Amino acid sequence: MLPIKTEKPWGHETLLEENKDYVLKELFMKKGCMCSLQYHRKKHETIYVLSDRLKLLYGKTKDKLTELIFEPGGYFVIQPKWVHRMCAIENAKYLEASTPQLTDVVRLEDAYGR
Question: Contacts by 73-78 with C-beta closer than 8 Å and gap 24+?
């Protein structure tokens, strides 16, 4: 039964909705933490920052990443196969809306040994 909260090494995520069409999560990332440098084969996602500041690194390859800083209200669409990583400049809360492929994660680097 939703919501489902999952602890992560960088904070936590709460699964708010999952159906055949889309998934909606709320994520909390602790200041100075980051998620894996990753990409998705099929998953298409949009992030929307709710509070504080969040850094996004993204690009077509891990060697050529662009850096963006988002304040509350900032959002970005991450296309399938784009390499990306979110980093919390401050304790950050954001939404992730995506297609329903929850296990479609290819980790390229991970600070937490996953």
Answer: 73/48, 73/49, 74/48, 74/49, 75/46, 75/47, 75/48, 75/49, 76/46, 76/47, 77/44, 77/45, 77/46, 78/40, 78/44, 78/45, 78/46, 78/47
Reported confidence tier of residue 1, pLDDT bands at 50, 70, 90: confident
Q: Where are the beta strands (DSSP E) in 9-105?
A: 11-18, 23-29, 37-39, 45-51, 54-61, 64-70, 75-78, 83-88, 92-98
pTM: 0.93
User: Out of 2.60.120.10, 3.40.1440.10, 3.30.1330.80, 3.30.200.20, which CATH number does the structure's domain 4-107 have?
Assistant: 2.60.120.10
